[in-house]
Design goal:
GO biological process, one term: urate catabolic process
Low-confidence stretches: none
Strand content: 25-35%
Oligomer: single chain
Number of strands: 18
Largest sheet: 7 strands, mixed
Keywords: FAD, Flavoprotein, Monooxygenase, NAD, Oxidoreductase, Purine metabolism
CATH superfamily: FAD/NAD(P)-binding domain
Number of domains: 1
Cofactor: FAD
CATH architecture: 3-Layer(bba) Sandwich
Protein name: FAD-dependent urate hydroxylase
Radius of gyration: 21 Å
InterPro entries: FAD-bd (IPR002938), FAD-dep_Monooxygenase_BioMet (IPR050493), FAD/NAD-bd_sf (IPR036188), HpxO (IPR047712)
Bound molecules: flavin-adenine dinucleotide
Distance between the termini: 25 Å
Length: 387
Amino acid sequence: MYNLKVVIIGAGIGGLTTGIAMRQAGYQVEIYDRAQELRPAGAGISLWSNGVKVLNRLGLGEKLAAIGGEMNAMEYRSHSDESLSYVDLRPLFEQVGQRPYPVARTDLQTMLLNAFGPKHVHLGMPCVGVEQDDHTATAIFENGDRMSGDLVIGADGIHSAVRADVVGHCVNRRYARYVNWNGLVKADPELCEKDLWVLYVGDSKRASMMPVGGDRFYFFFGAPMAEGTQVDPAHRQDELAKIFQGWPAPVQKLIEALDPEQTNRLEIGDIDPLDHLVKGRVALLGDSAHATTPTLGQGGCQAIEDAVVLTRYLTTTNIGVADALKRYEAARKDRTADLVMKARKRTSTIYGYVPEATEQWYADLKQEPPEAVINALAKVILAGPMG
Ligand SMILES: Cc1cc2nc3c(=O)[nH]c(=O)nc-3n(C[C@H](O)[C@H](O)[C@H](O)COP(=O)(O)OP(=O)(O)OC[C@H]3O[C@@H](n4cnc5c(N)ncnc54)[C@H](O)[C@@H]3O)c2cc1C
């Protein structure tokens, strides 16, 4: 189909990537976001090769490589500083044809926003619902404005306002029973080797660092916690020092090095897989369709995959918009549901839902051959739309 007018709700990774793909297809695209200023919710993100391949296809490969960190290996270490497993990731790059890129989220957002064109992103526009008839779909905004197009895409994240209209009921986030702290620090060999992704694990908690562009490490911590706890930014360093007391020297140095005011503290959740990702001329995309816990590092990559698959069906079929959206749903529903459920299972193992299973996992890490890790990662990557 040609000359479509597309209304996208949400200027996150999913909305912006979709905007870029659809603009390249010759469609007229406007994006609306409720935020007054676009600020990503976390500090860093690891874009695995399946996400990178899509961005390559959209012509962003060189720009992404320029902001990406060079991550060549991953290592699990115990909280008593024993190496549990070390995997050289380069055979993975050979197998799948593209390295992954850990990046700072602000760098990624700036890259995507500039590629799409900031003047077509309208801020301060909270969407409150959608309507449609046989010819158009309309987004309705809090201020009473209405924007119509051939289709509306709800790329408005885990607490999506578009989702209830598509699935017919409210879907709430499910708390995953742990808190994630994340931020950026200057790269320092005393913290971690510059091309290594290190994960310290123990006591159902973890602390991790990986390289991103600009000679920095993206770090994150995770620990089980009851829902609803809040800690002021000024006290986050003290909180981490207490939770990770006695952990190895690099973890202590990381806690000393981080800027507590710039350290995000997030309660992590996901949503149950949905029966429908589309209704007529309205499609859900990214976290609004399949928010997942970040234990596989695939949420953002799946949003990026959604963007190119949805665009492909709109551009390669001509029965109609609703038909193309159905094909998008059929292509994406099982893949994304499968990853949500796998990440959920991994979350339970990492964060000690069943403490014996977590202890067993620590023991298994020592036995797992690197090829098995590479093959598992390759399987997820190669099942993406770019192969
Ligand atoms: C701690 C953490 C670590 C992660 N690590 C990784 C990783 O390593 N690799 C990976 O691939 N993924 C990772 N993810 C997942 C990834 O961040 C998400 O899957 C991704 O950001 C989803 O993008 P999105 O565009 O769908 O949604 P979002 O990024 O949530 O964007 C939604 C946008 O919609 C706007 N919006 C919301 N409601 C409305 C409304 N009513 N009206 C208008 N606008 C609205 C918001 O302001 C926002 O800009 C991680 C997630 C977390 C929490």
